[in-house]
Amino acid sequence: MKLAIVIPARMASTRFPGKPLCDLLGRPMIAWVYERACAAEVTDNVLVATPDPEIETVCANLGIPAVRTRLDHPSGTDRIAEVAETHPADVFVNLQGDEPLVRPDTIRACVRPFLAGEPVEMASVCAPAAANELENPAVVKVVTDLAGYALYFSRWCLPFPRSDRPEPVKKHIGLYAYTRDVLRRFATWPPSPLERAESLEQLRFLENGVRIKMEFGQGSEMAIDTPEQADIVRSILTRGDVLA
């Protein structure tokens, strides 16, 4: 089985235009993400998928493999589905380009079901939610069945605490691994009703009958969505306490 880690990256961010190339201690953010992907040591097949010539040029100068994709993709998953049409791999990992602090061990957790030979089409990662994350709609929650497969993802706190919760609320960490076949199918499906209601593209898989195996991992200290968050990440990197 051949794995590929694909890092979707684009310049057109609403809150932080050009963020994949923002400077973090003298290096563009995309280089930090690429380095963390390589540190997971699950594959040497790591590449950036971008519609932007600026990102492609920077990657070429840094020796980072990159492929040009269409500009009109509505999501990173659609962008990776385009890569899967031509790139040689059986399983594709979607690692967001704004995660310079992603833990390599969490990447390993995401691909664990595939490496273990489990008959899965898709996998992702979750972690216990902190108390201050329970009511935050930006922190997506997931509930799972007894075998560890996702039942539902929501921006609301699930399950509803009518009685004591038997276990901690699980937050979803936005890291995915998919087979080539399920990516191809995803690209043919229109946005689904629950996906549109929650604005969560992973629900399109569930609504079309794809089971998602959830593994436990750890979220990164911070993804970068704004210039202010980039400043915080610079401080973390300066301290040198980024975890493996």
Mean pLDDT: 93
- Helical content class: 25-40%
Structural class: alpha/beta
CATH topology: Spore Coat Polysaccharide Biosynthesis Protein SpsA, Chain A
Distance between the termini: 25 Å
CATH superfamily: Spore Coat Polysaccharide Biosynthesis Protein SpsA, Chain A
CATH architecture: Alpha-Beta Complex
Radius of gyration: 17 Å
Oligomer: single chain
Main sheet characteristics: 9 strands, mixed
Q: Which stretches of 5+ consecutive residues score pLDDT under 50?
A: none
Helix-strand string: EEEHEHEHEHEEEEHHHEH
Instruction: Give the overall shape, derived from the CA principal axes.
Output: globular
Give the beta-strand count.
11
What percent strand?
Answer: 15-25%
Search tags:
single chain, 244 residues, Spore Coat Polysaccharide Biosynthesis Protein SpsA, Chain A, two-stranded antiparallel ribbon, 8 helices, 32% helix, globular
Topology overview:
Blueprint: E1 3-8, E2 23-24, E3 27-28, H1 29-39, E4 46-50, H2 53-62, E5 66-68, H3 76-86, E6 91-94, H4 104-115, E7 122-128, E8 141-144, E9 150-154, E10 170-179, H5 180-188, H6 193-198, H7 202-207, E11 212-216, H8 227-239
Parallel strand pairs: 1-4, 1-6, 4-5, 7-11
Antiparallel strand pairs: 2-3, 6-10, 7-10, 8-9, 8-10
Helix pairs in contact: 3-5
Question: What does this protein structure show overall?
Answer:
Helix 3 crosses helix 5. The strands form two sheets. Strands 1, 4, 5, 6, 7, 8, 9, 10 and 11 form a nine-stranded mixed beta sheet that branches. The chain has a two-stranded antiparallel ribbon with strand order 2-3. The mean pLDDT is 93. It has 244 residues and is an alpha/beta fold. The chain has a single domain, classed as Spore Coat Polysaccharide Biosynthesis Protein SpsA, Chain A, CATH 3.90.550.10. The chain has eight helices and eleven strands.
